[in-house]
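User: Predict the full complex structure for these chains.
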Amino acid sequence: MRVDVRKTYKLFIGGQFPRSESGRSYELLDAKGNFLANPALASRKDLRDAVVAARAASEKWASASAFNRSQILYRVAEVMEGRREQFVSEVMAQEGVTKAQAIKQVDAAIDLWVWYAGWCDKIPTIFGSTNPVSGSFYNFTTPEPVGVVAAFIDGNSSLIDIVHGIAPILAGGNVVIAIANEEYPLCAITLSEVIATSDVPGGVVNVLTGRTEELAPWVASHMDIDGVDGSGVEPAAYEAVKRDGADNLKRIYRFKAEGSPQRIISFMENKTVWHPIGI
Amino acid sequence: MKFEYAPAPESTAIVDIQSEYNLFIDGKFVPSKGGKRFETINPSNEKVLSRVTQATSADVDKAVKAATEAYRKTWSKLTGTQRGKYLFRIARILQERAREFAVLESMDNGKPIRETRDTDIPLAAAHFFYHAGWADKLDYAGLGKNPKPHGVVGQIIPWNFPMLMLAWKVAPALATGNTVVLKPAETTPLTALLFAEVCQQADLPKGVVNILTGDGSTGAAIVNHPGINKIAFTGSTEVGKIIAKSVASSKKALTLELGGKGANIIFEDAPIDETVEGIISGIFFNQGHVCCAGSRLLVQENIKDELLEKLKRRMSLIRVGDPLDKNTDLGAINSQAQLMKIRELAESGDAEGAQRWSPQCQLPEKGFWFPPTFFTGVSQAHRIAREEIFGPVLSVITFRTPSEAIEKANNTPYGLSAGIWTDKGSRILWSAQQLKAGVIWANTFNKFDPASPFGGYKESGWGREGGLHGLSAYLKGDFS
Amino acid sequence: MLLTDSSESSIKSFLKNLSPVDQVGADARAAMLGTRSIKTSSKLWAIDTAISMIDLTTLEGADTPGKVAALCTKAVRPDPSDSSVPHVGAVCVYNDMVKIAREHLDNNGGKEIPVAAVSTAFPSGRASLDVKKRDTEDAIASGATEIDMVIDRGAFLSGNLEKVFTEIVCIKDICGERAHLKVILETGELVTYDNVRKASFLAMAAGADFIKTSTGKVSPAATAPVVLVMLEAVRDYFAMTGKRIGVKPAGGIRTTKDAIKQLVLVNETAGPDWLDPKLFRIGASALLND
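Assistant: Here is the predicted structure of the three-chain assembly.
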C-alpha cells in the first residue's frame, strides 16, 4: 500500500509560496466532514506583504502591451488544462459533487479564463472613444488600469468564482490580491501554482487563504489598495468595507457570478486627452 | 570594404517542400479532376520549388460544397468559445512552426528572411490570436445582439504578403462563424498549403478551410460561384473593379483591398534621421511590393536638398541580395512579369524627363532584381507620379505650404495610405484630418497590428481589415 | 565655425535649430541594426577591431598599484597565449594612478598605448572650475595623453549652457597639443535623445575630440539608441565642418556580442572611417575577458 505525498497549501505572494508569517492555519473539512487540509490563515502582515509585492509589479504589468497580457493569460489556460485532474479532485472533495459534475465545472472554468484572456486587446476599442467636441480639437478617451485590486472570491463554486475574481482584473492591466473563499480555498492555491509556471511576473497575482471577516476590514483600510471586488464578502460586512474604503476612495464593487466585461472596466479609469488640430 | 559582413545564410533544412501539391478540400489534400499543374519558383534564383495544382471550376464547386456542408453541419453549431479555441490552436501552431513558415515564405516570395521572421509570420500568428478572442464576444462588437455570419466566404489573396494576407482573411472569417474557400496567388502558393497542414494539426473540422491553388481563372470561378455568400479580395485595382462588376447583380457581399500611391509628407521640422528611416521603410520594405507603400515623397522644398543627400547616403547602405541571408535588406522582385512592369514604368520616368538615381548595387546573375531607386524632377502629370509601380521606386515631389502638400497628396484616384513627418502635434492632426486615406502614419510608417483597422478610400477599395471595424465585413448587416 | 560667439543666446539658438529626434524611430533603427548577423571571417575581424578600441578601465575607490599593474599587463597582451591578438586602445584610470600606469606600460612593451585619465571631479563634475583645471593639469603632468572630462549636467538641464560650453573650452585649452579631450555627456542623466543630440553638438562646438556616453557609474549608460544618436551627431558635424570627432560608448558593454553590435552601429551610421581607434573607443573592463 503506497502512502501518498499530500500537498501543503501555503500562500502565494510575489511569485513565491510562503507560509503565513503568523504561523497560523485552519482546518478545512471536505463535504463529508473529513479532514481535507490545513490551509494557511493569512494575517494582516501577510496582506501588507502582498500589497507591497503587488504594487511593485503593477507598473510593468500595466505597461505591457495588451497582446502580451493576452498571451500570458492564454498560457495560464494551457497550463490549467494540463492540471485538470488536480482541479477535478479538489472540486469534488470540497463541494461533494460527482466527478462528472466536477469535470463540467473545470471545463467551464478553463473556457471562462480563455474568454477573459481574449478581452485584453479589445478593451480600449470597445470602451474607449474619440469624442466629437466642438472646436478644432482632437479628443479621445482611453481606459487605464487603476492599479492594485483586492478581490474577495465568492463561494458559489470552488473554481469558477476564482476565475471571475482574478482573470478580469488581470485582463484590464491591474494586479490582484485574491482572498480565497474560506470554504473553498484549495483551487485558488493550485491555480497559483499554475500561474507561477505560466510566465506571469511575480506579484501580479497574489493569493491569500483565511478568514474573510478578519481580512475584510484590513483590506478596506489599507491605503495602498486602489480597488476592491467585494463579491465574496457578506452584505453587512460589505457596507463596512465601503465605509472604511472611502478613506482613500477605493473603487469598490460586487458582481454577479457571470462573465462580463464590467468586471474588467470597473477597475479602470477613463483618461480624456485634448489636442489642437491646426497648421 | 573595411567591415564586410560575411554571408549569414538561414538554413533551408527546416522546410520540407514536396515536389507536388494537390488541393486542400474538406480536410484532405485531393487531386484535381483534370486540372493541370504549374510551377512555383524561387524568384531569387529561378529554381523550381514545386508543382502545384491549377484548380478547375469543378474543383471550386467541390470546395464550395465542402465549405457549405461544414458551415451547416459543424461550424455554425459551435459556440463562439469553441470556435475561438480552434483559432487559439492555429495561432499557437503558427508560433511553434514560425521559423519553418518564415523560411518557406522567403523562398517562395523572394522577400528577406529578416522580414518574414520578424514581421510577416509573427503578425500572422498575432492576427489569429486577436481574432480568437473575438469569436465569443461578437455581442459586444456594436453590431447588434447575436450578429450572423454570411456563410461561405471566397477569399483571394495577393503574392506580396502571402501568409500575412491569409491570416488577415481567414482569422476574422472563422472567428465570426464563416467557412472559407481561399485562393493564394499563383506565384506564392506554398505557405498557404503549409497552412492547410496547420489546420489538420489543429483538428479544425473538415471543410471549414479549403485552399485552392490556381490563377485568375480559378479566382473568377470562386467569385462567380453561386454558393459563395461573400467575397474578400486583395489585389490590383484593375481586377478589383472587374470583381465588383461581376458581383453587382448578385447578393454577394464584397470587400476590396486594392492599390495605392501613398504620399509620404515631410515637413521642415521633421526628425530628420528617423524620417529617412521612414522613407526607406515606406518604399523599400518588401521591395516596394506594398499596396500602402509611401511611393510618393512629398518634401517641403526648403529641406529637399538636405533630405535627398541623407536619403542617398542611407540608400547606399541597403543590402540587396540573397533573401535567405539574414543581413539582406532588399530581396528579389516576385516575378519576371512584375519586374517588366517596374522597368517599364521606370523607363517612362526617364522618358518623361525625370532624373533617376540608384546607389551602386551588385545584383545577382539569376533571379529578378531591381535596385532601390528614386526619381527627382517629377511632375504630377508623370506616369511615375500617378501609376502604382509596386516596386522599389520612389517619386520625389516638392511643396511649399501645408495646403499644397495636402492637395498634391490627395491628387490621386487612390486613397490607401499617407505618411506625415513633423515635430508638431497639431499639424499631424490637421494633416490627418485633411488627407483622404484610410491609414495614416505620423512619424512612422508601415505599422500593422491586428487591432488596427486597415483599408482604403476611393479606388483603393472599400472595407477594413483588422480591429473592430474589420469584423463587420464578415457579419450580415441590415443593409446590402 | 558654427557658432557666432559663445554667448548663452547664440548657443541656445544653435542647439534649438538642430533636428529633433523621434525616440521610437531611433529605438527602432538601433534595434534593426542589432539584428545584423556577423559571422565567421567578419566576426573575427570585428573581435580584433573591438579589442584594439577598448579603453581598458579601472575606476574604483579600491584601486591599488597592483591592480593597475595587472590591468596594464592585460592591456598589452590581452591573450597571454596568443600574441596575434592586438593590444587595447588605451588604459583608463584615475588621476593618481596615471604615473603607475604609464611606467608599467612602458616597461612591458606598451609604449604605444596611451593612458587616459578621468578628470574634472569625475564622475559627478560637482566642483569649482579651478579644481577641475587643476585635476586636468595633474593628470597631464603625470603622463596622461587623453583626458576624459565630465560635463556639468546640472548646468545643462537647468539651461545654463554657457557654463557647460565654457568649461569644455577651458579644459581643451589646458589639454592643448599634449592630450586629446573626451567629453562625457552622462547620457543616462540627460534622459532624452534630443538632449543627447544637443549635448553632443555643444561638446563638439566647444572643442571635444571625442564625445563619450557615460561615466559608467550611472545606469542606463551606452544603450544602442544613445550611441546611434551620437554617431549621427558626429556624422552631421563632419558634413557641416569637415572635422571628424570620435565617439566612445562606456558602461554596459560586457559581451563580445555587445561590442560587435557597437561596430555595426558605427559602420552603418558614421561610416567605415570611424572604424578606427582614433575615432571610436569602447570603455570597458570585463569585456576583454569575454
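Chain C has one domain: 8-288.
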